[in-house]
Amino acid sequence: MSGEHLLSKLAIKNTSGDLEAFLAIKSAMKDQYDELTNPSGVLNLGVAVNKLQEEVILKKLNSVNQVVKEDLEYFDPTGTLPFREAIADIFNRHFNVHKQVESDQIMVVNGVTSGIDVVTSVLCEFESTSRSSWCSGSTRRDSAP
């Protein structure tokens, strides 16, 4: 396989223009933080959980704002309980709800794409969960067209 076919046309277009951001990342990777050998180096905050630099990150973040260890880890996938309780309270106080909204009835997602994914997985019956059927949009209908 030749190299020109390894990337899509869009990927080639996106990587052949201005490389300033790429070069900045490359430079930062050469200057990574180490408490003993490079204390003024770059902290990599581009990872989900950074246990290796947890104390350093906590110290820096707490110099700006109060942060606890749990803030650096994964949360409940439906959203933190205090946040869901606050959302339920807003609905109950500011909307004319027929029945009180409870925090366990709320699911917080990280964007509209995740929300659409959750809704479609609840409402749609897919013939197969293989990648090809998801990509082609093959779904089962309850009745014939």
From TrEMBL:
InterPro entries: PyrdxlP-dep_Trfase, PyrdxlP-dep_Trfase_major, PyrdxlP-dep_Trfase_small. It comes from the Eukaryota. This is Aminotransferase class I/classII domain-containing protein.
